[in-house]
Design goal:
single chain; 7 helices; alpha/beta; TIM Barrel
C-alpha cells in the first residue's frame, strides 16, 4: 500500500517520513484546497525527502476557487511546473477545466509533455465533473498518459462514503491509470478504506500517526 502524505509547506514532513509515508504531495494553502508552494519550500522539502528515499509531487495551482484558468494563469502554471521539475520533483499535480465543466484536454497534453518522464497527477478538479464525464475522462486521462488520478469520488464528503462510485472509476480505468484516493482518509480508517476501495494508494494530511 502506498501512503501519500499531503504536506502544507514543510509542516510535519520529517514526522511523516519517520512514520513510513512513501510519497509527499507538496502544496501550500490547504485552507483553499492547495496551491503551489513557495520555491524555497520546494527546494527544502524535495532535498530532504530524497535524502530519505521518499518521492515528492508538487502541486501546480495558482489560486483557490474554480479550475478554469486564463491563458496567463496557464503560462504561470507551466513556469512553476518547469521550476518544480528542474529542482528534482518526481512529478507535478494539476487540474484544469473548461468553462462548460469539461477537462481542459489541451492543457493536460501540455503539462504531460512538459513533465516528460516524470509523474503527472490530475487532482480533485476531476470531482467537479458529472458522473458520466468522470467515466469518460478516466479513460481519456489514461489515453493522455497521465500517471495518476486523485479523487474522493464526489465534490465533497469522505471517500469511504463514495467507495462504490470510486470502485466503478477504478474498473473503468482498466489498470491503465493509477487511482489515488483521498478525502477523509486517516491513519485510523485507512485499513477500512483499503478493504472497501479497490486501490492500493491513499492520500491525506493524517495518513499516518504523527
Amino acid at each position: 500500500m502506498i501512503k501519500e502524505f499531503c504536506a502544507e509547506n514543510s509542516q510535519g514532513v520529517p514526522e511523516a517520513i519517520k512514520a513510513g509515508i512513501m510519497r509527499i504531495e507538496l502544496c501550500d494553502r490547504l485552507d483553499i484546497g492547495g496551491t503551489t508552494p513557495e520555491r524555497d519550500v520546494q527546494e527544502q522539502v524535495t532535498h530532504y525527502a530524497h535524502q530519505h528515499n521518499v518521492k515528492v509531487v508538487t502541486m501546480i495551482r495558482p489560486r483557490g476557487g474554480n479550475f478554469v484558468y486564463s491563458d496567463s494563469e496557464k503560462e504561470a502554471m507551466k513556469a512553476e511546473a518547469r521550476y518544480a521539475l528542474s529542482i528534482g520533483a518526481d512529478g507535478i499535480v494539476f487540474g484544469a477545466l473548461t468553462p462548460d465543466n469539461k477537462v481542459d484536454w489541451s492543457f493536460v497534453d501540455e503539462m504531460v509533455q512538459l513533465a516528460g518522464n516524470r509523474q503527472t497527477v490530475f487532482h480533485m478538479a476531476f470531482d467537479s465533473l458529472s458522473k458520466s464525464d468522470q467515466l469518460e475522462s478516466v479513460k481519456a486521462l489514461a489515453d493522455a498518459h497521465v500517471t495518476r488520478l486523485l479523487t474522493r469520488g464526489a465534490a465533497s464528503g469522505a471517500a469511504i462514503d463514495n467507495a462504490e462510485w470510486i470502485n466503478q472509476l477504478i474498473e473503468a480505468s482498466s489498470g491503465r491509470l493509477e487511482i489515488l484516493v483521498g478525502g477523509g482518509i486517516t491513519a485510523a480508517n485507512i485499513d477500512k478504506a483499503s478493504t472497501i476501495i479497490h486501490t492500493d494508494q491513499f492520500h491525506g494530511t493524517k495518513i499516518v500517526k504523527g
